[in-house]
Amino acid sequence: MVRLAATGALCGVLATLAACGGEAERRDGDRGGVLTMLAASDVDFLDPGHTSFVQGIQVAAATQRPLFRYRPNDLTQLRPDLAAARPDVSADGRTVTVKLRRGVRFSPPVDREVTSRDVAYALERFFSANVGGPYLSYFRDLVGAPRKPTDGVQPIRGITTPDDHTIVFQLSEPTSASFVSALSLPASAPVPEDYARPFDAKSPSTYNTHVIATGPYMVRNNDAGETVGYQAGRSIELVRNPNWDHRTDERPAHVDSIKIVTNATDGGVAARQVLAGTGMVYAIQPPPSILKVVSTGAQRAQAVKVSAGDYRFLPLTTTIKPFDRLDVRKAVLAVFDRSAVRVARGGTSTGPLATHFIPPGIPGYGEAGGERGPNVDFLSPDRPHGDPDIAKAYMRKAGFPSGKYTGSERFLVVSGNAVSERNVAEVVRAQLQKLGFRIDLRFVPDDALFTNWCTVPSKKVLACSGVAWLKDFPDPEPLLMPVFYGGAITDSTGNTNFSQLDDPAVDAAMDRARLLSGDARAAAWGAIDRAIVEHAAAVPLQWDTLTLIHSKDVDGIASETFGSWDFSYTSIK
């Protein structure tokens, strides 16, 4: 399971840009104050072993210390966090040894130093059905890793702790490249077994409302560890972790506390409050009307651009006739006015048009064709408004002599119900209608879009409009494998291969690419990206550039890792 994004709001659901809102360093006079973030929705989970939505990842980035992390504006270097140094990887790529930093302590009420056993427990609990970790695929190669969620927290043979500051991971396959990158996810943040095990024994685990921190901030809690600073659906209050030692952490942690308002549902009102107020940031990209103001007007200084490291796309379900015919899908890509989608989302400031899937700044982007892409005739970078003649030619090849679909069936397209999402959905319907398809649009809340529709094959959705797929870490595997690997298809809820592409050659290429590293890895995934385009399983639409807004007195630092504000670097002037 990887983070998803919708057009109107980043949710679980994300080019390296120079403008990240300033230098990510502490400056004299920047320390202190209360930062307020207005958001339209809540976190999915505070539990670092369960969160996968952007806002949950954002909170975890401020409150937890995974083994490794990326700095906000540098995805090229994986940096030690809880780890004391880079991992030691064996020559065969099957053994990863990590030394832990000394002096890192848990927040109250645990109040003790972190040990390697705490990291081991964090990953073991991840496999428990009670916790429901969403990133099992990245850790499935651990020796002895369960093939399905366990009943309670069980030990894993491939994780050993020779001493309190050493943890060793044994892998059944030489997949250390992606495994080490996955250790930057919140799931590798330590969890104190002696404190958490009683909560994890419950189904579901209640650690989410008793979560302990290791980062510079913590969710305000009481003496029993209950997160009294979390009001579900309303607000989250982060305060300083009194046991955090800045000498063990490169993050400056400028502000004293952070208040997250999670029910600011009117995006226009919330965005204007931020622009006119003090000490405030807006959680996501503002509505198109506000976006235009901060992109061209006097308030440009209150905007920060950041790449989400995602691709926005329109998946075409390959099991629905006649979209099971490759030439029909090629016709859709050929006719599609991708530029019209970008206009509906707010114009060129929302990011470049995509010609394939791996986004700029991620290994494999150049190998997949870079800005121009594979340059196939049905997805030409020189025809962003589409080419009806090429589209009709492919429809004739598919068995429709008129160049248009002549059947009587109606096809379902589902979209989020925010204004910008509705606008995009209307564009999608118009493109499909050019080829004679009759389209029924259904508008649903963003969370329901993914949980009840896009991920449920039985709903027979032809396409989910306005969705994007965000990286979990800067690597092509988490961007392509969950979405286009045949083995990811499930008949029940939770299916992430929306198009249900099931091609043995593509699957085999992915299986081989997982074992590679360095330039060979980038080349292999780039070739896979080109093959997915050739299968026309989805229309690549955009590589998102996010515009985040802040009050005049805020020096906002945006993270390219998760595409939102990094609380540990943002300051109030």
List the helices and strands and how they pair.
Elements: E1 4-6, E2 34-38, H1 54-63, E3 68-71, E4 74-80, E5 88-89, E6 95-99, H2 116-126, H3 136-139, E7 159-163, E8 166-170, H4 176-182, H5 193-200, E9 217-219, E10 230-231, E11 235-240, E12 257-261, H6 267-276, E13 280-282, H7 288-296, E14 303-307, E15 310-315, H8 326-335, H9 338-345, H10 388-397, E16 410-416, H11 419-433, E17 438-444, H12 446-454, E18 463-465, E19 467-470, H13 477-484, H14 504-513, H15 518-534, E20 538-542, E21 545-549, E22 554-555, E23 558-559, E24 564-565, E25 571-572
Parallel strand pairs: 2-12, 2-13, 16-17, 16-18
Antiparallel strand pairs: 1-19, 3-4, 5-6, 6-8, 7-8, 9-11, 10-11, 11-12, 14-21, 15-19, 15-20, 22-25, 23-24
Broad shape: globular
User: Can you count the beta strands?
Assistant: 25
According to CATH, the homologous superfamily of the largest domain is: Periplasmic binding protein-like II
* The level-1 CATH class of the largest domain: Alpha Beta
Major beta-sheet overview: 6 strands, mixed
Helix content: 25-40%
**Helix/strand class:** alpha+beta
Uncertain segments of ≥5 residues (pLDDT<50)? Answer: 6-29
CA-to-CA gap between the ends?
Answer: 38 Å
- What would you report as the Rg, rounded to the nearest angstrom? 23 Å
- Looking at CATH, which topology of the largest domain would you report? D-Maltodextrin-Binding Protein, domain 2
Q: What's the number of domains? A: 2
CATH architecture of the largest domain: 3-Layer(aba) Sandwich
Mean pLDDT: 92
Regarding quaternary structure, what we see is single chain
Q: Assess the beta-strand content as a share of residues.
A: 15-25%
Give the number of helices. 15
